[in-house]
Amino acid sequence: MPGKHSLEGALPISTILRDYLKVCDNLREAKIILNNGDVMIDQRIVRKQKSPVGLMDVISLPKLKMNVRGMLDRHGRIEFVPIKPAEAKWKLVRVEDKTTVKEGKIQLNLHDGTNILSKEKVKTGDVLQLGLPDMKVKKVLKFKDGAQSLIIGGSHVGSIATVKGQETTRSTKPNLVMYDDFQTIRPYSFVVGEKKAMVSLPEVKL
């Protein structure tokens, strides 16, 4: 379900409509648009003004033929990238944790605050391509050498880089991930493709 985002940096949909997508001039107009059922997050209609939207979430306004995905710019700020209708039918989610529930089923806890039951063999840090709105797994992107990763924190935030290696730390500190000319901690690495990024990327502003 939309509106559960747990990552820092999520924004309320009413603010996005006014300040980012600029489809209204004030929050009163945003409320009207939402009440009319004209806004979808991850292909589900939302009406609450404070419904949060964050990294990888998809916003659709069918009447305006507008689809955007939440991404990060080079300053770590959320940015909404226009996407084609076909790309609005899926999203990427990172597996943050796994829990065994009733009857031995595995519950996957995802970066956007949602949980799903899945038979997929995945590890923490792997990324799932989920169909929208059914949230069914379409593809698993393994966190491994050669994967394309979006850097979501640190000094290289917002960049796409190829995973070159990993280093396991012997302390409580996060494991390290090696890239061509830098390294960062594992939580800052979000796989977005195998040989190239699956998601549309923000334009680089000079």
Automatic annotation (TrEMBL):
InterPro entries: Rib_uL2_dom2, Ribosomal_eS4, Ribosomal_eS4_central_region, Ribosomal_eS4_central_sf, S4_RNA-bd_sf. GO terms for molecular function: rRNA binding; structural constituent of ribosome. GO terms for biological process: translation. Residues 69-137 form the Small ribosomal subunit protein eS4 central region domain. Keywords: Ribonucleoprotein, Ribosomal protein, RNA-binding, rRNA-binding. It holds the Pfam family Ribosomal_S4e. GO terms for cellular component: cytosolic small ribosomal subunit. Belongs to the eukaryotic ribosomal protein eS4 family. PANTHER family: 30S/40S RIBOSOMAL PROTEIN S4, SMALL RIBOSOMAL SUBUNIT PROTEIN ES4. This is Small ribosomal subunit protein eS4 central region domain-containing protein. It comes from marine metagenome. The lineage of its organism: unclassified sequences, metagenomes, ecological metagenomes.
